[in-house]
Design brief:
The chain has one domain. The chain is built from 12 helices and 5 strands. The chain has a 5-stranded antiparallel β-sheet with strand order 1-2-3-4-5. Helix 7 crosses helix 10.
Length: 327
Amino acid sequence: MNRNIKDSRVTVGGQAVLEGVMMRSPWRIATAVRDLEGVIKVKAFPFVSFSRRNKIAGLPVLRGAIGLFEALKIGIDSLNWSGEIAGEVEGKPTFWDKALEGAAFLFAMVLGIGLFMAVPYAVAGLVPKTDNQVLFHLIAGTLRILLLLGYMAGISLIPDITRVFQYHGAEHKSIFTFERKLELCSANAIDQSRFHPRCGTSFLLLAAVLTMIGFMTFDSAYIGLGGIFSNVLHRVLVHLPFIPVVAGLSYEVLRLVEKHSEEPAWQPLVRPGFWLQGITTREPDQEQIEVALASLHEALRKDNDQFEGIDRNSVIQDLTVELKESA
């Protein structure tokens, strides 16, 4: 390999899936899942983000918006494959399976927009004297954050989701092990924190706050220039095109917060994300950490593209050998 995979400049991210973890390096994506027989199976392929291949797409804010759509596509594909391996889905998906999946995704998007945009706007509109856009969005934004917290807390009570949250914790511990230039083994990973400043959960919270501030400013200017919102649906439709901008800004703020995450002055921005991660992560066991490490190890590989099964007892040994060879 021509790159030291422990290079601290390499940014690695991930996502928990069914009985496994997806990891993403700047040049490769890997998903590791433990199957019904206890074997860890890894699917990996080269991938370079469009924002890294195109100078314009790599501009601040724009790269975050593009990255959001890429992450959605990669995440859905990884979840589908993990369902097949973990035994949640039988056989290869048919055309109708994919059509149903697409319909379900659209339904989830509409439901999400309704719950986190339309409902807060409708409730804020019921409060007297909410013609003031600052007050309106303070009410709507606070309700949006409360709904997010309630949603996360509610799904955390589902046993299958609890296991996904354990793999989420394993993902963070594994990434911390890599970032701190430690050998990628469960003994090192188990001691790391399950709270990571560069987490999708923290991103959601930042996006909720920036949505409140951004649309508060936008609507004040919009109405000041003579614009009107005839109803809740009208306001939602006007705001929807700006959601990618909010996502891009949230990405940039999250990068900045992560860079200064250990500085005391930045803790007011770091801690709320960690508190929310207290819901969306759980302490993993050793076998779950092994899966996360297998995924991370393969995401960092640069010499070939492969799909492989690794039995539980060989995972740590394989990882240790690979790290020694690449040092």
